[in-house]
Prior knowledge:
Number of domains: 1
Radius of gyration: 20 Å
Helix content: 40-55%
Number of strands: 6
Number of helices: 7
Strand content: 5-15%
CATH topology: Protein-Tyrosine Phosphatase, Chain A
Strand order of the largest sheet: 1-2-3-6-4-5
Largest sheet: 6 strands, mixed
Amino acid sequence: MKKVELFLQFALLASLIAACVHTEEHAIVPADVSAVQTWGQAVRVTQLKHLYFADQPDTEALKIASEKGVVAVINLRNPEEIDWDEKAAAESLGMQYYNIPIMTASPSFDPAVISQIEAAVAAQDHAPVLLHCSSSNRVGAWLAIHLADKHKMDKQQALAVGRKAGMTKNALENRVKLYWAQ
Length: 182
């Protein structure tokens, strides 16, 4: 009888240890990306955890972002694409501003640019961040790359999540695939 009791105690202890050690969060799926919201003139705003993805925000959209606790705006547009002082607007609301352009004409993505975006997001230490471009296609593409590269997500699943976050153009999806093939 003592052997059975000892075995049961060992099995209980082993299961408690396994429960404490196993803290893996659930895998991200497209359904984890919020429904599309409208913030001012930004009509394609989605959210995944602490990250917001959008098309081009205006002053009203930045105010809404600030109210939601966003601490940084990461603009993936080329400066020539922007016709207003977004940096001043974001900083006036207490948010940090980064302009890290993902060029639209290149066949793939520049790994150095992807690393800069990763660093800007990581610098916020899981605080809310708004990433945007003109249509949210580039931010969806960045998200797919991020999920596959940093979270080891299956690439097809990462593409599906990226699509839900705004990547609607096949050309961007092809650029993501070329990036992974490099």
